[in-house]
Amino acid sequence: MSTELSTYIEELELFKSNELLKNTNFNDESLFAGQNSLSFNTKAEDAGNIYDVLPSLKGSKYDDELEIIKGELSLKTQNRSEIEVAQSLGIDVNPYDIVDGVLLSSNSNLLLMDSSGTLTLPETVEVIGEGAFADLEGLKTIIIPGTVKEISANAFRNNKDLENVIMEEGVTTIGVSAFMDCRNLKNVVFPDSLTSMGSQCFYLCTSLARVELPDNISHIASYSFSNCTNLSNVILPKNLTTIEVSAFSYCTSLTEISLPSLLTKIDASAFSLCYNLDNIDTSENINFIYEDNILMTSNKENILFIADKELKNIDTFSIPDGIKNWNYSLSSYSNIKKLNIPKSLESIPVTSIPLEIENIIVDENNTNFYVENECLYSYDKKKLILAFTKNDTVILNQNVENIQYYSFKSAPNVTSVTLPESVLSIGSQVFNRCNNLKTIYIDENVSFIEPLFVYTNYNVHLIIDSGNDYYSVETTENGDILYNKDKSTLITVLYKIQGTFNLANTVKVIGNQAFHNQNQMTSIILPEGLTEIGASFNYCDGLTKITIPSTVEKISTSAFNNANNLTKIQINKPKNSISGSPWGAIRGDRIVEWLAN
Which one, of 60, 56, 59, 39, lies nearest residue 48 by Cα? Predict the structure, then answer.
């Protein structure tokens, strides 16, 4: 091996010497050669190729693996012995799967990591593909050259050893969840060229202490630095205009932050659960004010943050009169038992109401909300916002049409719920915390049920009126399964799946969230005849392998989001016959196996 590769080195040097004799302006770094091309001094040689440079190469075992880049040999191989020999001879090695500049997810992506755990990417990479380095061991430092423009979704997710990320000038985009759950990541160097960062990009990077974002960033996406519990120093970019939902939530080491002058929008949850944040500098910004430990818009119509010391020791909270939209979450403050709503308030999401609330008082002049029988409604009583009774029964108004999301979060003792005939829809996670709830009666008029309406409350038995034209329930020895009326669509499984789940042969579509958080389901058998898979397997951590039948025609691009232990997706179809691969699987296309020719 060493002798043969040395021969090609000698032939390359001889070619460069001969060309230099012919033309003293010959630039060896301009020399590029492959099986179908030869060029140097910016000129393509007609009908030339690598064999004009390396005559011994033709027909050899390295015929398809060697090329010349910038006047140097480059060997494409994933064989460890070949890598070691080539490197000992000074030959560049490229073990990656690179297609049109995209570095694909591959098990060979760590073959060039040195003994210190450092990996430098080749300059031929323009995009680090989805999941390319996700869940790989041993990688401590990654140097990303400026030729890389984009770091795709999940690219380095769940790298437990990763400590340093150095992005050189030229990188513009960091994708969704690109560095999520890299819990040992301590240092990130951002280039000035960076313009875009996806949601959750550094979520759960619990060792990250300092972040200085480049000035070309205008948006900090939702959950970007959420749960970075060691993050104490954040320098926001000068051109920042928006901080989105929970961008810095639960950054418990953050004590102060300065808002740049161009910032115009901050979501009310942006700094939620930042229990030690008590200094927000708004001196350079006219859109926000921070006074009396409260961050609000300059017109004082919206409160965006309240320091923990103002909330942790009170039992009653009164929303200030003048506030129109209350969005700041008080859910984590179990000490707050009473909430006063002023006449000015127009909207309040249920997630912002204290979880252990016992009483809600609405100003008599408020025309947007109404309280009756320990339930908060919209003023016309058609929307149930929150049931906060601590009794085992709840009495709902007979005009209510919409049971909104989380609306029973503060009624943990209810044992049975009969919905009025007026009810048309049931939102997400309505009965999540009702652990004593045994039975839900659904009338014939209900036409929409969110799949996660009970979330992980697996004690519930569902009874659906026989006259309902939209839904049907199957009661098994393990629990209930909710389908559409003719059982062609699986809505959700209402019990904790243990081991293997056999999907009914009638099912053509697995709906969104159908198996959400079924983390003890270890396998699933999908029948021939299934045609579509939605965003169905989020947080199915017990699932390591799934086989998809040939009849499936469509898979959601987020079908396997957060299925953290999924290592093999087998599909009985030709390669790439279903778009969207790897459909949110964090390890990328390296785990997708197309079985049909």
Answer: 39
Give the C-alpha separation, 532 to 553, whole Å: 6
Residue 593's DSSP bridge partners are: 570
Within 13 Å of residue 399, how many CA atoms lie on the same side as its CB?
Answer: 9
Q: How crowded is residue 89: how many other Cβ atoms within 10 Å of its Cβ?
A: 14
Distance between CA atoms of 550 and 576, rounded to whole angstroms? Answer: 13
73: β partners: 68
Residue 313, burial from CB neighbour count under 10 angstroms (0-12, 13-18, 19+): exposed
Each residue of 119-128: pLDDT tens digit?
A: 878 777 899 9
Q: What angle do CA 518, 519, 523 make, to 5 degrees?
A: 80
Distance from C-alpha of 238 to C-alpha of 233, rounded to nearest angstrom: 16
**Which amino acid, 117?**
G
- Considering only CA atoms, which of 587, 546, 583, 538 is closest in space to residue 563? 538
Alpha-carbon torsion angle 447, 452, 453, 455, nearest 10: 160
Domains of the chain: 1-94 (no CATH), 314-469 (3.80.10.10), 471-597 (3.80.10)
Cis peptide before 582 (omega within 30 of 0): yes
The three-state DSSP-derived secondary structure of 527-547 is CCCCCEECCCCCCCCCCCEEE
Q: Which two tokens stand for residue 344?
A: 């000015």
Query: What pLDDT shows up at residue 38?
Result: 86
What confidence tens digit (pLDDT) does each residue in 447-462 have? 999 999 999 888 899 9
Q: Note the pLDDT tens digit of each residue in 203-257.
A: 999 999 999 999 999 999 999 999 999 999 999 999 999 999 999 999 999 999 9
3-state helix, strand, coil in the chain (%, to 5): 10, 25, 65
Question: Element (H or E) spanning 15, and its range?
Answer: helix 2-22
- CA distance linking residue 209 with residue 185, whole number of Å: 9
Instruction: Give strand pairing partners of 524.
Output: 501
CA distance linking residue 430 with residue 440, whole number of Å: 12
Task: Give the C-alpha separation, 454 to 34, whole Å.
Answer: 60
| CA 61 to each of CA 56, 75, 179: distance values in angstroms, whole numbers, following the listed order | 11, 12, 39
First CA to last CA distance, the chain? 34
DSSP letter assigned to residue 584: T
Region of 111 please: left (phi>0), alpha (psi -120 to 50) or beta: alpha
**Over the stretch 257-288, which tens digit does the pLDDT of each residue have?**
999 999 999 999 999 999 999 999 999 999 99
Q: What is the pLDDT, as a whole number, of residue 29?
A: 84
- Residue 30 reports pLDDT greater than 90: no
> Which pLDDT tens digit goes with each residue over 520-570?
999 999 999 999 999 999 999 999 999 999 999 999 999 999 999 999 999
3-class secondary structure, 483:
strand
- In whole angstroms, give the CA distance from residue 557 to residue 549: 17
HEC-encoded secondary structure of 255-286: CEEECCCCCCEECCCCCCCCCCCCEEECCCCC
Q: What is the pLDDT of residue 491?
A: 98
- Predicted TM-score (pTM) of this structure: 0.82
